[in-house]
Design brief:
By secondary structure, the chain is of the alpha/beta class. Helix content is about 10%, strand content about 15%. It is built from four helices and 14 strands.
Length: about 290
């Protein structure tokens, strides 16, 4: 979020740590004391007590439901982060996000074994152009909105969604991470979509059981997860991706062989998983650094 506002993320985090406002855990996660978080939420709550859409941030599921249902979003809103498992059934309008021009973070998470409560019966016109981080668990549409201009998007997460084809007319010049894990209807990732994704370092497609082939991957990729892609019959030659560090192909039960030069130039590769690839008959020589 600091980088989104034009500040140096590393320097900003150091300042907050020095002021004892946040800390970094042993597993390298940012942590904040509950009381400090509650104080921040209270300040945001006081920004506008009568019009929820004029607050800068929304996290309470009931508030999020009211804003989306009644299309109360405004240019004041910068972040929505909520667990939508507890909200009533909600049919979103195509122009739900129309007035949220400054929305930078949108995260809808959901609890396991809870039916999806949010629906898009008429699709979605677009997401705000300022959006940097998009996380929508169980995304209820087969594709991204065609009018969405994703030039600012840095991370895209749609686990367990209904996405069928990852395609879009716009460019993703700043995308660094794509997560479509367990999108069981995903059948294709077109070559045209992956073109020019120069900043993409992480691609997670685990559990995409309808995916049969993976496209050519961008040069800067570091992490590739294709585990449990049970219909995947081929994987791309990764010799053009010298920065790859981790590859997970576990439970790719239809995978018969790997490209002969797949591990060529992968001097940074330190983690390779091929467990339960029951049909795999040919595997090239592994790099020495494994």
């Amino acid at each position: 979020m600091l980088k989104m506002h034009g500040f140096s993320a590393r320097r900003g985090i150091d300042v907050l740590i020095n002021k004892s406002l946040i800390s970094i855990s042993g597993d390298n996660h940012l942590e904040m004391h509950d009381l400090l978080q509650e104080m921040g939420q209270s300040i945001v709550h006081e920004q506008c007590t009568h019009n929820l859409g004029k607050r800068s941030r929304l996290w309470n599921a009931k508030d999020v439901y009211q804003v989306l249902k009644n299309r109360m979003g405004t240019t004041k809103l910068q972040a929505i982060h909520s667990d939508i498992s507890t909200i009533p059934e909600l049919q979103l309008n195509p122009d739900t996000f129309k007035n949220m021009h400054n929305l930078r973070l949108l995260k809808f998470s959901a609890q396991p074994n809870v039916d999806n409560k949010m629906h898009l019966p008429e699709g979605l016109e677009s997401f705000p152009e300022e959006l940097r981080y998009l996380y929508w668990e169980r995304y209820p549409s087969e594709s991204l909105p065609s009018e969405f201009s994703p030039h600012n998007l840095v991370e895209l997460h749609m686990p367990n969604g209904k996405v069928k084809k990852l395609s879009h007319n716009g460019q993703f010049p700043n995308i660094e991470a794509i997560d479509l894990c367990w999108c069981t209807s995903l059948v294709q990732v077109p070559k045209s979509f992956m073109k020019n994704l120069d900043k993409l370092t992480r691609l997670e497609l685990a559990g995409c059981s309808s995916l049969k082939a993976s496209p050519e991957l961008p040069r800067n990729l570091r992490q590739l997860d294709l585990s449990s892609c049970s219909q995947l019959t081929e994987v791309p030659d990764l010799s053009r991706c010298p920065n790859v560090e981790e590859i997970d192909l576990c439970r790719c039960t239809s995978l018969v062989q790997l490209p002969k030069s797949i591990f060529k130039n992968l001097d940074k590769l330190f983690r390779l998983q091929l467990a339960k690839c029951s049909s795999l008959k040919v595997c090239p020589e592994l790099p020495r650094n494994i």
